[in-house]
Design goal:
Layout (H helix, E strand, L loop, with lengths): L13 H27 L7 H39 L3 H36 L1
Length: 126
């Protein structure tokens, strides 16, 4: 009876990153939508950088900024996967793990932000 050992390179495959990048893009879209819903109802953006972007460029520039953040994370994934391809080993796996955990933390924090925005929208309409 042979026991198959799952290699560490299979831990973070392209499907894993595709799912999490999709979740990141959806969370960014939800953040933009709920931020706009709050501002239409009279809410004020608490994040100074986001408020500046909204003031200078409006919602269009805010969308572009959010899409650039997702594209930047996709570039980080691409570089980490490429690093693992050409330099297999513990460092490459650590690099991929750090990128994976960063994406997951971003999705979690954006989800909390969206829930906060939805709460503000509910309070503004009441």
């Amino acid at each position: 009876m042979q026991i198959q050992v799952r290699s560490s390179t299979a831990r973070f495959d392209s499907r894993f990153f595709l799912i999490w990048l999709s979740l990141l893009a959806q969370a960014q879209m939800a953040d933009v939508i709920t931020t706009q819903a709050d501002s239409i109802r009279g809410g004020v953006e608490a994040n100074e950088f986001a408020a500046f972007i909204l003031q200078v460029g409006g919602p269009g520039l805010f969308w572009v900024m959010k899409l650039l953040l997702v594209a930047g994370m996709a570039a980080a994934v691409f570089l980490a996967v490429r690093f693992r391809k050409y330099n297999p080993g513990d460092r490459a796996e650590l690099c991929l793990e750090m990128v994976a955990r960063t994406i997951q933390c971003c999705v979690l924090l954006l989800t909390i932000t969206v829930l906060g925005n939805a709460s503000v929208a509910a309070q503004l309409t009441a």
